[in-house]
Amino acid sequence: MKQLAFSICTAFFLMSCSDGFTTFPVTEEKQATLDDKVSVVRLSASNISNFASPIVQTVRTSLPYQPDWEYKVGVGDILNIIVFDHPELTSPARPQFNVADTGFSVQADGTFFYPYVGQIHAKGRSVQDIRGELSLKLANYIPDPQVEVRIAAFNSQSTTIAGEVRSPNRQALTTVPLTLLEAVNAAGGLRETGDQSRITLQRNGRSYRVDLEGFLKRNMRGNNPILRNGDIVNVPRRQTAEAFVLGEVTRPSPIDLSIEPVTLTQALTRQGGINQVRADARGVFVFRKVNGTTVVYQLQTNSPEGWLLGTRFTLEPFDVVYVTRSPLQRWNDTISSLLPTVNAATAVDEIAK
């Protein structure tokens, strides 16, 4: 707010150089009367390209990139085991039950019981490992057994999606890798207030910032990590990022910059445009703090070229847009303020006569 107040004070000081309205261009003599930390830049076709795109700070996540994923069986998972040509050794599939109800459940000690073979340790192993052990042990009873092991219910591993998503939830991990983007989409996507550039991911007692925009806009693969068991993803509320439109516009008010880039012309148009009666179309200023210095960008909108230049000037957070008053309106306001006194004095004189 200090920056906003300083910019407004600078605006009024600059306006005072010309008795309430602005003479263009602002000369070196006028600029010399300003504070040393204030500089004026006139926007033109030669320099407007420097302000066309906002500065986007993309953060590369420090979360270690692990591109591979292999599901490991855990406690609570239900296994479906098929031994071809041996229905007596296959998970029973009764019409009134699904496989998850009749499969082999991994118990708290990480094992499950299988006929002829006995206890099989499953926790922390892949289905390929379990299939290999079953095939080896069943070969003592069945010549060349053909075994298939599948996971019928994924109950042991999950990740949690919370914060500014439409449907915060717990999502089970499966044999198919689950990326951060897919998990957010599965939670209904972001709310309008969600900030995908500052997502936090908690893993193994540590918290990492993940800028998902870095993946979507710059293809940073590490910024769309594959989620692991126990991960907690939190989408924070988007921070306020505003510019302020003041002066002789139809509706002076803040402009939200947090959703999409907004140009100077867009900002003025969204606020109903400049006041056609009161405003000086030559006097559109943008005040911006740059490395401790207040830079005043001046734009003339009394011609179509000015408005076109404004479509290429992208506003940044805490910019102050100020539209000056016309010299004619300054005169009109002075006369209007004096008229009641003059009329009252005239009435007294007439009564005295």
Structure description:
The protein is 25% helix and 25% strand. The protein has 353 residues and is α+β, with helices and mostly antiparallel strands. A six-stranded mixed β-sheet has the order 1-15-14-16-12-13, sandwiched between helices. It has a five-stranded mixed β-sheet with strand order 8-7-11-9-10, with helices on one face. The radius of gyration is 35 Å and the shape is rod-shaped.
Mean pLDDT: 82
Classification by helices and strands? alpha+beta
Strand content: 15-25%
Largest sheet: 6 strands, mixed
Radius of gyration: 35 Å
Stretches with pLDDT under 50, minimum 5 residues: 13-22
Could you give the count of β-strands? 16
- Order of strands across the main sheet: 1-15-14-16-12-13
Terminal residue distance:
58 Å
Count of alpha/pi helices: 9
Write the layout of secondary structure elements.
Layout: H1 2-16, H2 28-32, E1 38-42, E2 78-83, H3 99-102, E3 104-105, E4 111-114, E5 118-121, H4 127-138, E6 147-153, E7 158-163, E8 169-172, H5 180-186, E9 199-203, E10 206-210, H6 212-218, E11 232-235, E12 242-247, E13 253-256, H7 264-270, E14 279-290, E15 293-299, H8 304-310, E16 320-325, H9 327-352
